[in-house]
């Protein structure tokens, strides 16, 4: 759980990262079904009550999507674990929200509602900028397994590609096409959610260390990736990429 953080929550090159983030035109936008589908599935896969997609802005961390937890649109940058998590180069950041685990943020909000587990994978744009995090959050701390880390990273990659696809359509003034793409992606994710519910009913939880379960989840992740790849590759070039 020990991670190496810089001395400041605001790194010297943050302006460059923010420029990339804002180019995607997704900061402080209204909820969209496809992103809500991602967080709902992540919460199921990791057996946690809360999952979110965050975008780390200059002073505020916006939640593009949130499953579970308080009805808030985001947190001040110095109150969100996501703001610290984007500063490392690690695949997945975990935390128990204790001050000694990360001195860069004030964990008051998390501690007030009894949160003791955070695991997040960065949303990394094509230029390497870390836009935010896909995070799963709960009340009981645990160390993610290797299988869980792999799945969380793959999910974050899918979310980042979806952000890029959204930008490509909307920048080209193709809102209807973006809605159609959302429908196709949501259909694929709905199939995943159905599988997750079945696995939870059968085993009370999803065990990604089970080879049979891992194979089923891998197949569903690949299906979503194929839908994204077709859409991204068929769209006119020149837009930002994930």
Describe the structure.
With 242 residues, the chain is of the alpha+beta class. It has one domain (14-234): Beta-Lactamase (2-Layer Sandwich), CATH 3.30.450.40. The chain has 7 helices and 6 strands, in the order H-H-E-E-E-H-E-H-E-E-H-H-H. It has helices at residues 14-23, 33-45, 81-85, 108-112, 146-171, 175-203, 211-234; strands at 50-56, 60-67, 74-76, 92-95, 117-124, 130-138. It has a 6-stranded antiparallel β-sheet with strand order 3-2-1-6-5-4. Strand 5 and strand 6 form a beta hairpin. Helix 2 (33-45) runs parallel beside helix 6 (175-203), helix 5 runs parallel beside helix 7 (211-234) and helix 6 (175-203) packs antiparallel against helix 7. The longest helix is centred in the C-terminal third of the chain and has 29 residues, at 175-203. It is globular, with a radius of gyration of 17 Å. The two termini are 28 Å apart. The mean pLDDT is 89.
């Amino acid at each position: 759980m020990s991670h190496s953080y810089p001395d400041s929550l605001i790194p010297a090159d943050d302006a460059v990262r923010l420029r990339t983030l804002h180019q995607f035109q997704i900061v402080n936008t209204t909820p969209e079904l496809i992103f809500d589908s991602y967080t709902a599935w992540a919460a199921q896969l990791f057996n946690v009550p809360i999952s979110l997609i965050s975008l780390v802005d200059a002073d505020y961390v916006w939640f593009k999507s949130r499953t579970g937890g308080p009805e808030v649109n985001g947190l001040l940058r110095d109150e969100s674990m996501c703001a610290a998590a984007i500063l490392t180069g690690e695949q997945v950041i975990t935390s128990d929200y204790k001050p000694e685990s990360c001195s860069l943020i004030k964990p008051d909000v998390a501690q007030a509602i009894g949160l003791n587990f955070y695991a997040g994978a960065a949303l990394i744009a094509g230029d390497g900028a870390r836009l935010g995090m896909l995070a799963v959050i709960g009340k009981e701390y645990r160390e993610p397994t290797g299988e869980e880390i792999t799945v969380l990273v793959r999910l974050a990659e899918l979310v980042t590609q979806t952000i890029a696809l959204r930008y490509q359509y909307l920048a080209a003034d193709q809102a209807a096409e973006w809605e159609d793409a959302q429908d196709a992606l949501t259909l694929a994710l709905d199939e995943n959610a159905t599988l997750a519910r079945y696995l939870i009913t059968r085993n009370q939880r999803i065990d990604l260390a089970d080879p049979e379960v891992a194979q089923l989840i891998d197949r569903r992740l690949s299906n979503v990736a194929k839908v994204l790849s077709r859409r991204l590759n068929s769209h006119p070039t020149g837009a930002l990429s994930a």
